[in-house]
Amino acid sequence: MISLNKIIQAKRAISGFVYKTPFAFSPKLSLLSGAQIYLKKENLQRTGAYKIRGAYNKIANLSDEERAKGVVAASAGNHAQGVAICAREFGAPAIIVMPESTPLLKVSGTKALGAQVILKGDNFDEAYEYANEYARERGMSFIHPFSDEFVMAGQGTVGLEMLDEVADLDMIIVPVGGGGLISGIASCVKQVNPNIKVIGVSAKGAPAMYESFRAKKSKNSKTVRTIADGIAVRDASEVTLAHILECVDDIVQVDDEEIANAILFLLENQKIIVEGAGAVGVASVLHSKVKFEKDAKIGIVLSGGNIDVQMLNIIIEKGLIKSARKMTIKVTLVDKPGALMSLTDCLKTANANIVKIDYDRFSTSLDYGDASITITLETKGKEHQEMVRNTLNEHGFEFTQLF
To answer: Residue 350 phi/psi, 5° resolution?
Structure first.
């Protein structure tokens, strides 16, 4: 494991630049789970993610000559921004290689921090191979996002801060992709108090570390596909796996629906925005993937908040439909004056608010003299939607519910 002394040294190194983020009690999540849940809000960190900790510690430990030659990193986004801002702080040139599918928010954010961005490959691992070669050819220092002792020691400072705030934690739940964050935190925690359980959470669409943990040997995935792009790592690192096998008690998985549900829960109930990777720990609790005693003190790491706005919009829309707070129906009316008003009056009696309406009288699928109305409504749950359907039936409207 990473020595506690190295993690303490990392804490000293980063203290003047990296934020000490809040570690706050969550009343609503605690009530739902039956445990005492605390959230480590690394989504409020500089650059919006914990990655800055490891990046700063690594660059701080380079020589002046190495920093002058510049640094190279491969990242889906958060490590990129961490390396970029830290390189700028030390006056070192930075080249960041990112997968071609990286959200625009993370690309533009990295450029704004002074780094040169190269888009290469379909996933992190392809970008990583190119970045490694790029650094070797130019004699630059490669800043690995997880398989590096200085990086892992920097990430381990998250664990130190959590224990500083709540020393008697029973469990810490940590997102797992490449394994750098959990390696650092677990190394720290197990040396301070071996009785604290450390649980990793990975995305089902990126199962490499989960399967490697089960097999106790490195197992790579053929492909990765998950909304949690921050932990979408195809190949398991033997370096971090060794730390994980030594220090981590278990790893569980959550799927994209569960991750999306956790993102929406945190947005609505905690008033905070997290990305997919940052929400997996909460998803594991909401969907009972982790076992714990009643009233156990549990810390959950919200690793980042850099979610693409379009993805957030999709998650909100799907969440509203799934929770029966939005419905869309298609109604066939006789195309005559007052027909639409009779429909809207009917919906008014059901207390359903119209948010979108489309009136089509020209579709070739309609009978002559008919019109098709597609209407989206705000509703207040399943019982309210049932009331809307009953009211339409009572008034003789022919309709289908699209979703």
So the answer is: -85, 0
Quote the pTM value: 0.89
pLDDT along the chain (403 residues), means of 10: 96 96 97 97 95 97 96 88 95 93 80 93 83 95 94 98 97 96 97 97 96 94 89 90 97 96 95 96 97 96 92 91 92 87 91 91 84 92 94 91 91
Contact residues for 176 (Cβ-Cβ < 8 A; gap 6+): 182, 200, 201, 202, 209, 210, 231, 244, 251
Give 334's strand partners: 370
